[in-house]
Every structure is written in structure tokens, then in C-alpha cells.
TrEMBL record:
Keywords: 2Fe-2S, Iron, Iron-sulfur, Metal-binding, Redox-active center. It comes from Tardibacter chloracetimidivorans. One of its GO terms (molecular function) is disulfide oxidoreductase activity. It comes from the Bacteria. Pfam families: Glutaredoxin. The keyword Iron-sulfur applies. InterPro entries: Glutaredoxin (IPR002109), GRX_PICOT-like (IPR033658), Monothiol_GRX (IPR014434), Monothiol_GRX-rel (IPR004480), Thioredoxin-like_sf (IPR036249). CDD domains: GRX_PICOT_like. This is Glutaredoxin.
Length: 111
């Protein structure tokens, strides 16, 4: 991975409290795993940003090296890699993902 791609990914990760690298967009996810990841984040009610890896092959390949994780989507919270959609689902079902969002200060306050 080139330093330029690594830098672009690092800047994206650092610029957003909750960032999902995904295939497609939140309105039009391009794979079931990305769709599930968006559904989880929407259910949690957190503000998040996304990067559509289908728009940039360098990012699509680079993120796998950056995180040492072979699949997309990939979730980052406060600059830390959390996991892909399977890990997100397991953490969500166990209540751990909501707890993580609260601990990182990104969970939406209960109204």
C-alpha cells in the first residue's frame, strides 16, 4: 500500500467519530453485509460517515491492508477498528456495540 493511500485512509478515519467503509452508500448499499452494517448503525442512532469503496479501487484494496482485515464493510469508532458486519452483528446482539458507542462518547443521548 502506498503512503498516499495509507494517509488518505488515516485522515478519513481520524476525521469522523464513527466511520464505515462500505460498498455503496447508506441509501443504496451494494452488498448485504454493508446493508446490515447500516441497519445496525441506524438502529443505534449514532451519527456516522461512510466511504464507498466501490468509488476508489485504491481505497478498496488499501483499507484491507490498513486494518489487516480481508472484508468490507469495516467499522471504525474514534479511530479504532471495530470489525466487519459479522462482528458488528455479534456485538450489537450482545449489547456490546451500544456500550462501545457510549464509552467512546458517540451514542445518541436517550430522549
Amino acid at each position: 500500500m502506498t503512503d498516499d493511500i495509507h494517509q488518505r485512509i488515516r485522515e478519513a478515519v481520524d476525521s469522523s467519530d464513527v466511520l464505515l467503509f462500505m460498498k455503496g452508500t447508506p441509501l443504496f448499499p451494494q452488498c448485504g453485509f454493508s446493508s446490515r452494517a447500516i441497519a445496525i448503525l441506524d438502529h443505534l442512532g449514532v451519527d456516522y460517515d461512510t466511504v464507498d469503496v466501490l468509488q476508489d479501487a485504491a481505497i478498496r484494496n488499501g483499507i484491507k491492508v490498513f486494518s489487516d482485515w480481508p472484508t468490507i464493510p469495516q467499522l471504525y469508532v474514534k479511530g479504532e477498528f471495530v470489525g466487519g458486519s459479522d462482528i458488528m452483528m455479534e456485538m450489537f446482539e450482545a449489547g456490546e456495540l451500544h456500550t462501545l458507542m457510549e464509552e467512546k462518547g458517540v451514542a445518541r443521548s436517550a430522549a
